[in-house]
Amino acid sequence: VTGAGRDLTEARQPAILERNGVKVGYLGYCSVGQPGSEASPGKPGIATLRVKTCYETRGAHAPVRILTEPDPRDLKMLLEDIAALRRQVDIVILAFHSGVIRIPRVISDYQVTVAHAAIDAGADLIVGHAPHIPKAIEVYKGKAIFYSLAVFAMTKPFEAPAWHEPPWAHGAARNHTDLDAEYPLMPYGRDTRRSLLAKAVVSKEGVKRVSFLPMMMDKRYRPEVLRHDDPRFSDVLQYMEWVSEGMPHKFTVD
């Protein structure tokens, strides 16, 4: 395991896997944990990368600009962990639990800052989770950043409390996030049906190739890998082009 432990030292420890002589190291960090869930000296919890949020108001006629940046102390800790892991393995992967949940396309400033800094420090691949829906894929310095792969399984028998808050009740945040009546146990919006399976070919020389397999949840909430002649395959691919607009990338079907 990685990303949690009996104290901060243990939470920062990587998970290292070796297959066919290739060593792959994972680090897990989280920016969306509940307050108090962070590990610290003598306290169990998760490896937390805190975020500072501020708001740039532009008057009642324009939407508020939300500015986010990673805590410099936590970012320094992450980059130290990547550098240390880089000396132990052939491939470094950061699993980063972060991002705006439910709402499509939106990528927070801090996510880009952290992902780029991680790659600059030696990470080979960034895999994001938390928003419950697929988000942009970016290629930075030849390395892939999955800002959110969505989920393999995420069900609960009640609606998210946010659906009863004013932004949803007034419609300001409801674009593309209305619930899907056919998936009552996935109350995170219609886009939760879509998901991705990331695929990477690795060697001792690094990541040779990165791709993703489009997936869709079936009516029993199981992820199904889609074949290219399935209309849903094109649906997920078009969706990924839409959410990745503005991010350097190029998708081709193989």
Summarize, please.
This protein has 5 helices and 13 strands.
Summarize the structure in words:
With 254 residues, this protein is of the alpha/beta class. 19% of the residues lie in helices and 30% in strands. It contains five helices and 13 strands. Strand 7 (91-97), helix 3 and strand 8 form a beta-alpha-beta unit. The two termini are 33 Å apart.
**Strand numbers in spatial order across the main sheet:** 2-3-7-8-10-9
Quaternary structure annotation? single chain
What is the percentage of strand-forming residues?
25-35%
Q: Radius of gyration over alpha carbons?
A: 19 Å
Q: So what's the overall shape?
A: globular
Question: Order of SSEs, N→C?
Answer: EHEEEEEHEHEEEHEEEH
Helix- and strand-based class? alpha/beta
Mean pLDDT: 93
Tell me the span between the first and last alpha carbons: 33 Å
Report helical residue fraction. 10-25%
Instruction: Specify the number of helices.
Output: 5
Low-confidence stretches: none
Largest sheet: 6 strands, mixed
Count of extended strands: 13
